[in-house]
Task: inverse folding
């Protein structure tokens, strides 16, 4: 057990620092900054500095954080959602979320692999982050397809870049779109990458807009579990076809996806004390930040340069596609305010 502690302690300290910096930035008005991304950046800086020589004894603990703690964090991410919230948004919101997630995953994988010639893992990670819930989705897909670590870093970077652009750009576009508050909120919830960014954009318009936007966004987040299960099945079949044309590989079931569903159900039907729920949400942020910082400690910047430009181009294309599809569907099918 002693061999785990150096890496775990390092990721814990990094995450605490990231969370503290994030809170300070939020107090200064820089809202929507994610501790997950800050943890990744700190890990990257250390891993690509002369300090990297001190990471030799931390490998086992870092692997534990990047794998086991990541799965725990994805499960607890279900605390952000309740079944009642999904019911509240109704079929228009759920249908909008389903169309967005499905189309972005399919188009992103096809364009990324066939047109941009990206590695399939990088194309899928980038599409998953855009389609579902940003960095958390990228990290959730990571253990299912087991990509190179630099691919995960690049995919996280793309969703952060375009999520940040949306966070500052969407409020400026609202007066020009001539949309109702409800329709605009649905556009935000169905196209913006991170939950925190959705909250910031919605609140910049009104509390009502924030509420609708977050619920539509959470409908996308809820699709994380079925996406993980389907991806696991399809990915294992793909690997089996590559290995042999006559045998199927063993299907690896991402059990943490069922844990995510269980947490959503418990969150909706088991009365949790407000303080306990907030504590669990903070713990989930800590665990995911530890997993992200561990990823950063494992990554060398020299390895990500070759694929980063094409991944950014893919993410830009997906972002524009999401805006186009979502605004079209909302125009024709979203209930009038």
Result:
């Amino acid at each position: 057990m002693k061999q785990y502690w150096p890496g775990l302690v390092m990721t814990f300290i990094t995450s605490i620092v990231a969370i503290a910096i994030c809170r300070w930035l939020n107090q200064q008005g820089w809202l929507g900054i994610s501790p997950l991304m800050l943890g990744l950046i700190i890990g990257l800086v250390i891993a690509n500095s002369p300090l990297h020589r001190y990471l030799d004894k931390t490998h086992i603990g870092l692997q534990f954080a990047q794998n086991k703690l990541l799965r725990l964090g994805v499960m607890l991410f279900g605390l952000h959602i309740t079944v009642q919230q999904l019911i509240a948004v109704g079929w228009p919101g759920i249908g909008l979320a389903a169309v967005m997630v499905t189309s972005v995953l399919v188009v992103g994988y096809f364009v990324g692999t066939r047109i941009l010639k990206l590695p399939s893992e990088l194309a899928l990670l980038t599409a998953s982050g855009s389609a579902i819930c940003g960095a958390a989705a990228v990290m959730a897909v990571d253990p299912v397809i087991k990509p190179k670590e630099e691919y995960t870093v690049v995919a996280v970077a793309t969703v952060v870049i375009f999520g940040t652009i949306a966070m500052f750009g969407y409020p400026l576009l609202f007066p020009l779109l001539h949309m109702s508050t409800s329709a605009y909120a649905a556009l935000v919830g169905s196209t913006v990458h991170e939950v925190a960014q959705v909250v910031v954009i919605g609140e910049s318009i009104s509390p009502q807009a924030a509420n609708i936007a977050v619920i539509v966004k959470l409908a996308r987040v809820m699709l994380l579990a079925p996406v993980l299960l389907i991806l696991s099945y399809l990915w294992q079949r793909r690997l089996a076809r590559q290995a042999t044309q006559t045998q199927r590989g063993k299907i690896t079931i991402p059990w943490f996806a069922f844990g995510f569903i269980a947490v959503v159900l418990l969150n909706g039907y088991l009365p949790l004390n407000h303080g306990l729920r907030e504590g669990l949400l903070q713990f989930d942020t800590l665990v995911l930040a530890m997993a992200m910082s561990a990823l950063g400690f494992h990554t060398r910047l020299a390895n990500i340069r070759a694929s980063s430009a094409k991944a950014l181009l893919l993410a830009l294309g997906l972002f524009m596609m999401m805006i186009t599809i979502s605004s079209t569907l909302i125009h024709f099918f979203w209930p009038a305010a």
